[in-house]
Design a protein that fits this description.
The complex is a heterodimer of chains A (176) and B (143). Chain A has 176 residues and is mainly alpha-helical. Chain A contains 7 helices and 3 strands, in the order H-E-H-H-E-E-H-H-H-H. The N and C termini of chain A lie far apart (68 Å). Chain B has a 6-stranded antiparallel sheet with strand order 1-2-3-4-5-6, covered by helices on one side. The chains are: A mainly alpha (176), B alpha+beta (143).
């Protein structure tokens, strides 16, 4: 930097991902690998040696972060149940049983409100485009927001409920 | 890279692990003051941009990121200004234009701008959005 042409103003934005090493890049890549994918394809996307990719993918598979499918070639994908398990563990560690119960109740109320508003038992039953066409009070964006929030509330209710069960179970063990 | 599976037919929940990774990475940069996942209203990643990057006319600038498990997304940028808020957002989902990708310009513009073709990778999308915000910041200082 010469400083010659610098006018008033802040320095450039920093790149949030540029300092990721190969392991972090493969991890970040696997978060979005939602179908079985060969290590060579992951290596190509990340721009690392296939051997490096295989090494970390085997390690992530041992940790449970990715699912490994044996075959020719062996493929890997994100293991959703690992992230679900991790989330439930954290919730159980960070909240009391009473707080977890309250979260379950709040999500249930939210879900019931959507069920009633859209006259459907799940968001999958709702045709977003048709609803947006037939309503003047909601744009297609509003409907998508609702359906996403509804689906998220269903996911979260399940996680809070499982955390509550784990919490209650361990409390009973400890006190019994 | 997996192509997005979202066709609008099946809504997906927020992908929290992706928000967590974005939070951790954005939090390390100078331009980001705070990055938290919150569930007030919507479950989303809220990013407060550093005051140091903005002229005094901007009181606050923030970004809200929602990323879904079908790789649809909605990213909303807002500047709280003395002369009224300035906001825009970037979306990907099925819409009446039969294009999955679009950019909503600031409120004075009525229709979506040119449909851009988004990268699929969540990191690339965030880079793209941050580049646009950086351009916006430069415009603010020039103005």
């Amino acid at each position: 930097m010469t400083g010659s042409d610098v006018s008033d103003g802040p320095p450039p934005f920093e790149d949030a991902f540029s300092s990721d090493d190969a392991e972090q890049q493969i991890y970040a890549e696997m978060l979005q690998t939602r179908t079985p994918t060969a290590a060579s394809a992951i290596a190509e996307t990340v721009g690392c040696d296939p051997k490096t990719a295989r090494k970390y993918l085997r390690w992530f598979a041992e940790l449970g972060i990715v699912t490994r499918h044996e075959g020719h070639p062996t493929t890997y994908e994100r293991n959703d149940s690992y992230f679900e398990w991790r989330r439930i563990n954290r919730l159980a560690a960070e909240h009391s049983a009473e707080e977890l119960r309250r979260h379950v109740r709040e999500r249930s109320e939210k879900i019931a409100a959507y069920e009633s508003e859209y006259d459907a038992s799940t968001p999958d039953e709702v045709d977003a485009l048709r609803v947006a066409d037939s309503r003047t009070d909601k744009s297609i964006d509003d409907v998508y927001d609702d359906l996403g929030d509804w689906q998220t509330a269903r996911r979260e209710r399940r996680q809070y409920e499982r955390a509550r069960q784990r919490r209650t179970g361990s409390t009973e063990q400890a006190s019994g | 890279m997996t192509p997005p599976t979202g066709d609008g037919a099946s809504p997906a929940p927020i992908d929290r692990p992706i928000l967590e990774l974005l939070r951790d990475r954005l939090d390390t940069t100078q331009q980001v003051e705070t990055a938290t996942i919150t569930d007030e209203g919507h479950l989303e990643l809220r990013v407060g941009l550093s005051d140091a990057y903005y002229p005094e006319t901007v009181r606050e600038a923030r970004l809200a990121v929602r990323w879904y498990e079908n790789d649809d997304f909605k990213i909303h940028y807002r500047e709280v200004r003395e002369d009224g808020d300035w906001e825009c957002r970037w979306d990907r989902h099925r819409n009446p234009h039969n294009e999955r990708d679009y950019f909503h310009p600031p409120p004075e513009a009525q229709s979506p701008g040119e449909d851009a073709s988004w990268p699929t990778d969540y990191r690339e999308v965030l880079r793209f959005v941050l580049d646009e915000i950086e351009d916006r910041v430069q415009t603010l200082w020039r103005g």
